[in-house]
């Protein structure tokens, strides 16, 4: 099984982005050919780079990872929406407002990874985790949407989704954080779960939210 795992470079004035650090750090996994990829925190260019690698390696799955500073734990994203609406500029000072990502794409795409199985496995390892129903409207949502859009057009079908991880303690003194080792372990568990259950129906357990 081939799985592309992506993380982003630092953005918003940060010196580190734990997403790419996790991607670099987690170990090789039996039965999986891992393609680790650092993406620029840049609208469009990130998708161009990802699509190049998708076309080259023809993966079975794509799991992208991004930083969600302020969230207290790991979040598996349920849905990506077809809009870029940037609260801050990306790394080349682009700041799109209410721009459609793909004019011929759906209004939204749901993750095609077994996100509830992943959440269950991470939780059983004692790491805080939940399903998220908003990937935001910055580059994280952009790349999740673009990966799922690409999957609808690919000659070889593949599945895709997105994981957000919190700040690490080195980044903040007043917001929630999680040690890099725990986020890295969560990513490893996610990949193992994808390997084991990629083509199975996801479990039906309550992971909804009131707001």
UniProtKB/TrEMBL annotation:
GO CC annotation terms, alphabetical: cytosol
EC code(s) of this entry: 3.4.19.3
Oligomeric form and interacting partners: Homotetramer.
Name of the molecule in the record: Pyrrolidone-carboxylate peptidase
MF term (GO), any: pyroglutamyl-peptidase activity
Subcellular location per the Swiss-Prot or TrEMBL entry: Cytoplasm
Origin: domain of life: Bacteria
Cited function: Removes 5-oxoproline from various penultimate amino acid residues except L-proline.
GO biological process: proteolysis
Assigned keywords, A-Z: Cytoplasm, Hydrolase, Protease, Thiol protease
InterPro entries assigned: Peptidase_C15 (IPR000816), Peptidase_C15-like (IPR016125), Peptidase_C15-like_sf (IPR036440), PGP-I_bact-type (IPR029762), PGPEP1_Cys_AS (IPR033694), PGPEP1_Glu_AS (IPR033693)
Cited Pfam families: Peptidase_C15 (PF01470)
Protein's UniProt keywords contain Cytoplasm: yes
Catalytic activity reported: Release of an N-terminal pyroglutamyl group from a polypeptide, the second amino acid generally not being Pro
UniProt keyword annotation of Magnesium present: no
Family (UniProt): Belongs to the peptidase C15 family.
Catalytic residue list: 77, 140, 164
Enzyme class of the recorded protein, top EC level: hydrolase
Organism of origin: Granulicatella adiacens ATCC 49175
């Amino acid at each position: 099984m081939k799985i592309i795992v992506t993380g982003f470079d630092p953005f918003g004035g940060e010196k580190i982005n734990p997403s790419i650090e996790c991607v670099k750090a987690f170990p090789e996994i039996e039965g999986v050919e891992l393609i680790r990829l650092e993406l620029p925190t840049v609208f469009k260019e990130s998708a161009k780079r990802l699509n190049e690698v998708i076309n080259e390696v023809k993966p079975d799955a794509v799991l992208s990872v991004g930083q969600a500073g302020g969230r207290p734990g790991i979040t598996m994203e349920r849905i990506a929406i077809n809009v870029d609406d940037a609260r801050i500029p990306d790394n080349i000072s682009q700041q799109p407002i209410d721009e459609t990502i793909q004019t011929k794409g759906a209004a939204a795409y749901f993750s095609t990874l077994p996100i509830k199985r992943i959440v269950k496995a991470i939780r059983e390892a004692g790491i805080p985790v939940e399903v998220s129903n908003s990937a935001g409207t910055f580059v994280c949502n952009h790349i999740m949407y673009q990966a799922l859009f690409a999957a609808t057009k690919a000659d070889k079908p593949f599945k895709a989704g997105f994981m957000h991880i919190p700040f690490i303690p080195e980044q903040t003194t007043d917001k929630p954080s999680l040690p890099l080792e725990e986020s890295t372990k969560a990513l490893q568990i996610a990949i193992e779960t994808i390997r084991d259950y990629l083509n199975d129906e996801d479990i039906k357990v309550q992971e909804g939210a009131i707001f």
